[in-house]
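Entry type: protein chain
Record version: 2
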Amino acid sequence: MKDAETIKSLGGPTAVARLLGLEMPDGSRRVHNWIKRGIPAAIKVKHPEIFLKAYDHPSAFSDVMPLHPTPAGSDIETAAAGKGA
């Protein structure tokens, strides 16, 4: 899930700013900027209870990892098991 989608799923910039305890209206503007720039990693780490909730669904990671497991015997599994070339 991209950060813009995360902000939308949490209720939009104003809702996220309130969840983070940011002062209004500057907090809402700050979060709105994250739609384009991305949510700072430090904010995600500081507030996992907010941002991990947005990633509870497996499809949240579909843009960075496949939804289906890698078939047995694949090069990835072989390398992970230390049996690579």
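Comment: The two ends are 35 Å apart (CA to CA).
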